[in-house]
Design brief:
It contains 14 helices and 14 strands. By secondary structure, the chain is an alpha+beta fold. The longest helix has 37 residues. Helix content is 50%, strand content 18%. Helix 13 packs antiparallel against helix 14. About 3% of the residues have low confidence.
């Protein structure tokens, strides 16, 4: 037989053998999955075992239920709310196992279930569920909530320098803790998305920017659920300074890196006395005037800056103006006066 015919037949035999091998492997995998599914008790049977008088069966059900993942969560919650105390405690343990297993489709459902048990369950079950959420706050709760808020167009600011106190204990989580959120016209979450803000228990400030779509009912709901958070209305423009009242004007206590204030050359310790040709006597004046301007506008900020002793002397003179020459007061103000043009930008607190 010619060589080329022999070679063709060998190739055909090899190809057929490969096809048969693939079919055999596929059949084996499907059979194994079928047998596993047939041998693994279903969810309702396992949940019934949680109430069995046989301790070994209760333990076995507790170990097997997490493998059912998201599909087991709702029936587990129903059983925990209607069953006995031990069943409720076992359900909390099962939910924690699912919650921490890094199954994306089950995490939010498990957290929702734990919160329901915390609010509606037996006191001991409620405490256990609360402890699970507390233990996993920074590595799961905060991370998931931040993801959902940003996905809907919210801005998140982390605090990385100071500790946050939870139940009286200081925490320094890697990457920081969420201190502020900003919701503006880009928010796509509607009132329903507020639930993700409420998961951020460390929030201290919520900035509602001009053009946001949240209803007053949603805002009141946030205020009720997060009493330590201050809700503040703001304009669309952003400068990037923290301030406090001062006897002369408004003192800058800190400046956000990369902000318009930072780019323009404003300094910590500057006393703002005027912005956009309007006088500033307190922090609320500064907030109001900035809010009246749009992003992209350049405004002149007049600050008093210089020797602290000179500033102290100026305060003394202003408090007792009748005892000093007006020309001397004007002269000191002129020495300290600095005009800083600042180009306003859209709000940006993400870090």
């Amino acid at each position: 037989m010619p060589f080329h015919l022999i070679y063709s037949r060998v190739r055909a035999i090899r190809k057929a053998a490969c096809v048969l091998l693939v079919i055999a492997v596929f059949a084996y995998v499907m059979a194994e999955q079928f047998c596993t599914a047939q041998s693994r008790p279903d969810i309702s049977a396992l949940i019934s075992q949680l109430k069995s008088p046989d301790h070994a069966l209760r333990v076995a059900a507790t170990a097997m239920l997490p493998s059912h993942g998201a599909s087991a969560i709702r029936p587990l919650i129903a059983e925990a709310l209607s069953g006995d105390l031990e069943t409720g405690l076992r359900v909390v343990h099962i939910l924690e196992t699912i919650y921490t297993a890094d199954q994306l489709e089950a995490i939010d459902l498990a957290e929702s279930g734990l919160r329901r048990l915390m609010n509606e369950g037996h006191p001991a079950v409620s405490q256990d569920a609360s402890d699970v959420l507390s233990r996993n706050y920074f590595n799961i709760v905060q991370k998931r909530a931040v993801h959902e808020v940003r996905k809907r167009g919210g801005q998140i600011q982390y605090e990385t320098e100071r500790a946050v106190f939870i139940d009286g204990q200081p925490h320094y989580p890697p990457g920081g803790w969420v201190i502020a959120v900003a919701i503006g016209k880009d928010w796509k979450g509607g009132d329903e998305g507020v639930i993700h803000l409420k998961r951020l228990e460390t929030l201290r400030a919520c900035y509602l920017l001009r053009g946001h779509s949240l209803s007053q009912q949603a805002i009141d709901s946030m205020r009720a659920d997060l009493p330590s958070m201050e809700i503040m209305e703001r304009g669309a423009a952003f400068v990037g300074v923290a301030t406090q009242p001062d006897s002369i004007g408004c003192a800058i206590t800190s400046i956000k890196p990369g902000s318009p204030a930072d780019k323009s050359g404003l300094l910590q310790g500057d006393i703002v006395v005027e912005i956009a040709e309007q006088p500033v006597q307190q922090p609320d004046d500064l907030v109001r005037i900035i809010g009246e301007n749009d992003p992209g506008t350049t405004v002149n900020v007049i600050v008093l800056r210089g020797d602290p002793l000179l500033r102290f002397k100026l305060v003394e003179m202003l408090n007792d103006a009748e005892s000093y020459s007006p020309l001397l007061i004007v002269s000191i103000i002129h020495q300290m006066r600095t005009v800083v043009p600042v180009k306003l930008e859209p709000w940006q607190i993400d870090n």
